[in-house]
Structure formats: C-alpha cells, structure tokens
C-alpha cells in the first residue's frame, strides 16, 4: 500500500526527495501519513481536495484485495 501511494505522490510533487510515507497497520486497518515539502502540499491536496480524494479512492480500491481499511493523512 505504501509503495502505491508513494509512486502517485512522487509524480505530483516537484521536490521528490522530500517525500516520506509512513505506514502503520493495526487490526485490519492501514494508516498512511504523507510528508511532503511545504511548497508541494497544494499539489497533493489539489483544488477542493480533489487530488487527495482520488489518491484515497485508489488506495481504498487496492485495500479491498488485502481485506483492510485504509486511512490517508497529509
């Protein structure tokens, strides 16, 4: 799951070396925290949150295969 989100986020940002993804798993739940440069936060969030919502949708679709719930925060 972490690799999927990291691949998507790195394609969106300008400062790819500052992208950090934290993943923790607890009882069928995956929590992912995205860290990017301050100047790239808007690129990841998007207008009205459209991009981050799309990333969440993709991650949730992938989570169905693993039978887990996924939460993503920036």
From TrEMBL:
<keyword id="KW-0961">Cell wall biogenesis/degradation</keyword>
<keyword id="KW-0133">Cell shape</keyword>
<feature type="domain" description="KH type-2">
    <location>
        <begin position="1"/>
        <end position="74"/>
    </location>
</feature>
<dbReference type="InterPro" id="IPR004044">
    <property type="entry name" value="KH_dom_type_2"/>
</dbReference>
<dbReference type="InterPro" id="IPR015946">
    <property type="entry name" value="KH_dom-like_a/b"/>
</dbReference>
<comment type="function">
    <text>A probable RNA chaperone. Forms a complex with KhpB which binds to cellular RNA and controls its expression. Plays a role in peptidoglycan (PG) homeostasis and cell length regulation.</text>
</comment>
<dbReference type="Pfam" id="PF13083">
    <property type="entry name" value="KH_KhpA-B"/>
</dbReference>
<keyword id="KW-0963">Cytoplasm</keyword>
<dbReference type="InterPro" id="IPR020627">
    <property type="entry name" value="KhpA"/>
</dbReference>
<keyword id="KW-0694">RNA-binding</keyword>
<keyword id="KW-0143">Chaperone</keyword>
<comment type="subunit">
    <text>Forms a complex with KhpB.</text>
</comment>
<protein>
    <recommendedName>
        <fullName>RNA-binding protein KhpA</fullName>
    </recommendedName>
</protein>
<comment type="similarity">
    <text>Belongs to the KhpA RNA-binding protein family.</text>
</comment>
